[in-house]
Amino acid sequence: MKVLVIGNGGREDAICKKISESNKCTELFCSKGNAGTLRYAENVELNSNEEIFRFSNDNNIDLVVVGPEAPLCEGIVDLFKDSNIKVFGADKKSARLEGSKDFAKKFMKKYDVPTARYETIKSIEEGKKAIENFSYPIVIKADGLCAGKGVRICNTKEDVLDYFKELFEDKIFGKEGSTVVIEEFLRGKEASLLCFVSKGNLIPMESARDYKRIFDNDEGENTGGVGCYSPSELFNEELKLQIEKILEKISNGLKKENLEYSGVLFIGFMIDEDAKVLEFNVRFGDPETEVVLPRMESDLLLAIEKSLDGSLEREDLKWKKEKCLTVILTSRGYPKNYEKGKEISGIDSVDKDIYVYHNNTKVNGSKILTDGGRVLSVTALGNSYDEIREKVYRNIEKISFETKQYRKDIGKM
Ligand code: AMP
Ligand code: GLY
To answer: What is the pTM assigned to this prediction?
Structure first.
């Protein structure tokens, strides 16, 4: 099978590695990939869904696996609908579960999926009225895709009004912020659950915990995620039963609403006494993928094929007992301003049982350079988080680049 993976982050590096290990894979391409995906794929640079369509046809690609949300929300699955090439991912309509917070909240309400109470507004005037029904802190979310930056937790009315002004008057997110969701603030601990969607049926992978804040002890700004481990210690038998019921409700909703895609549904949970759904994404998570896929014993390509024909079952997925943890090396200044193009050394000197996924790197002659905010995911499997932490942090010392920065508390319980 000839496979094309779309994306250029750590998630895609992990997807490419896992697909390359399948004996069903005969040739692997990644667009646009990074210095890491080059280890198992040929990198190609395709800049639009139309270019991906043309390349796939010209090169007899059998399967396209889409990493990021943007091509899905722009309708890549719909574009390939009448071709023989299969695309693993949500169609445009289903991608609204990620692309519109209002759409996702309406879906959850309609299908009785536990989530934070909310109201949707379209103007400052509506917003001023709506916030009277909430106590502080209040969560304000731009409706559309804002690269993970659209959510603000406001402690005072002044904070709320400032954010309303940014959204509705300064239009910092343009159209994506012209509809806004106001939510009740939920307390608890977060956990991520990635599920295969097989024509509307949900087949869960293993749970994970993502660290979103840039600094230790969850201080500083929200990022795309700077550390992660799998499984989440919160997933005990009781919680698993609760989550099964939630998955049933979501699956029922997907089928009733004609959202029976084949791809991935990422469910973000807030877990306190009960589990509540914070958000949906219609793709693999990053960095969740870097800790979930190394634990998958079964063949990813087979799971994708079965998901596409609607036959995937839980028994098809086999998981290692070992835990997995990753620490992300970032460029100092991320998630704000940072420099790129710094030479990275030492990746090849890490221990044999350490795996370094590339988030944003590029090759320049014989050198590997930093090429973004998140740079490398230093990852290992092991029997306890303490054991893995020791290994990972010891090996991080062997990797150098001028702007290297990382959290020291990933997996510290
Ligand atoms: P979202 O993109 O909706 O997942 O929001 C991004 C982050 O904001 C989440 O991962 C949470 O840390 C936080 N967040 C979102 N909604 C809420 C909520 N209702 N209560 C508390 N925190 C929230
Ligand atoms: N780790 C969060 C995300 O992928 O959106």
So the answer is: 0.97
